[in-house]
Amino acid sequence: MKTLGLILLDFIPLIVALLVSPRWLGCIVALGIAVLFLTIQVRHKRVKTLTLINTLYFLTAAIVIFLVPGVPVLEYGQVTIYLILAISTVLSICSSQPFTLQYAKETTPEAVWSHPLFLTINRVLTGVWASLFSLSTLFAILTALRILPLEIGIVTANIWSIIGVAANMILPKYMQQRYATKMQQPEAPELKWEPFVAPQTPAEQNEYDVLVVGSGIGGLTAAVELAGEGAKVLVLEQHYLIGGACTTYTRRGGFKFEAGVESISGLGETGPLRHLLQRHGLEEEITWLRNTYEFREGDERFIIPHDYTGWRDRLAERFPEEKEGIYALFAELKACFEEMYTVFMPDRIVPHIPQTVEEMNAYAEQNSHYLRWKDREWRELLDAFVQNQAVRQQVSILTGYVGDKGERTSANSMIALMGYFIVGGYRPAGGSGKLAMKLAEKLKQYGGDIRISTDVTEITVEDNRVTGVQTKKGAYKAPIVISNADPRVTYEQLVGLSRLPQAYREKVGKLEPSMSLFVWSAAVDTKFCTHRLIHYTLPQPIRLSSMDIVFERAGVHSASSLDSSLAPYGKSTVTINLITKAQAGIYVAMTEKEYQALKSEIDAICRQILEQIDREAASNILFSEVATPKTMERYMRTYEGSVYSIKRQMMDGEFPYAKSPIEGLYLAGAGVGYGPGIEAVVISGGDVAERLTPYFESRSAGQNTA
User: Fold this and answer.
1) 242-277 in b/e burial notation, b at 16+ Cβ within 10 A?
2) How many other CB atoms sit within 10 Å of the CB of residue 191?
3) pTM over 0.90
């Protein structure tokens, strides 16, 4: 209604000119009103097209009336005004700047200006006005040519505006309501099925309510949540250790290494991981150690302090020419981060996404900073504040946590990663596997179970409904299966593409793996130089001679330097990560001799990098080993050895969905919903559990859900 009011204001001069007699006086008064409106708009730097047209027209009309009295200015003026309006509204649509945007932006938070719904509504409204202005032009011409009497012509030329007013009152709310309805029911027809939950807990040994394929944190979250609601749950893990990437394994001499996770977020007051631990009485079961980050470029070092504002101040001191931009950037990121977490309610793992028009409007008003950037790239956000490449590189230090796109990473992902500095990134004392172990213990307390070294070879399906899984050790039955495996692996290897609708087969085939890693792990017979996570830009790029791969950066850290329980006294573990493409097939196709030669070359490169970081450690290596994308594919069961499952597309983040077209089959993990990282997969697993919980609550209440 506010937008409509602003539009109607710009019709006041024309209405005055029509109603006030004599005509010359009406034009003069109309000119005065138009000039007043234009002056106000110029002062606020918000000049409207219609206001400008009104001012120019009535100025011209006043001059003509003064110089040539008796000229029927109004009749010809209507033609001029409406013709200009018709042309300008059509052109505004063609230029992607709909006419009504000028008014809507004054009554709507800036954060929603780029929202597709906001733009669609204004395109539709402008299209309506363009049609109505064209009709007004037609009747104005008929009036000017005396085909219609003056009084009738004036009425018929202007009456169409009533339809425009009605459209402005009705269409936005109607389109918002349709959008809200779509948000509430986003599922395609093939996803509109209900899960089957038996009236009673299955009694047979190999029969369950829910089977979970994979013991990654996403799968364990879903398992614990559902077992806590009374479901009979079994988790099946192909490896002899649980946790997926959140696994800690031991090598000779008592050295403990991480399978992948080096820092965990989501432990703030509104963090989903904190809520998960609180819900299940695990908050005091784990001691969390806070990570510190270090940025190195050659011999240059920059330690990022725990204090977020301290990092800002240190950057501003180092780059004084960018001080103002740095302060503004850090303020914007903190505001965005805090607004991002307003969707997390107390004790909720899954965010509450606004569903109704009222909720969406309230969210937009309260979270304008976050909404301004969430659907844009990180580089766009940086462009608005800082230009210095060294500053940009440092604040982009964690892009590798979600992929290999650098500044092309989504701003939404990077805002979330700011939590590692605002709230903190942590590792559990005793290794990341401690988190998986505690969740597994809680699962068993609830009556659930885990079976390791049990490789699922097939998710069995009959009549488009899951019936269980087949493993190398036998079959297990359940009407609900949650796959924590990579989505492409799930659909292509465990389900079979032939069971999917054609549209799904095409979507699955288009899923690309995210980046992979070469991971070098070493035991060192001395203390490592720092406990910080080092993001190291190499002095000179290093080329892998056996393949067309160039390394420019490396991640270097010693988990045992922060957590002494991970290595014998006086000794250390060291890990170096080198980003590469997820192309496990290349390494699988190598002969054993070729593969070992490749690993030897990676080993030599990493020893060279370690020498640049800590010469004493490099001189005291007890043993080392190399993991490749082939290793990732084998142990993490991801497509082509991707470490972050599928590549997340900025504007197409919904697929793969948590719900599949196979009835009873759900997906959870890094490839679904919220992307990679422990915090994100906790949300993913919690999302699946939240969908299923009502059915088990009904069973517990004695209601038959069959």
Assistant:
1) bbbbbbbbeeeeebbbbbbbbbbbbbbebbbbbbbb
2) 14
3) no
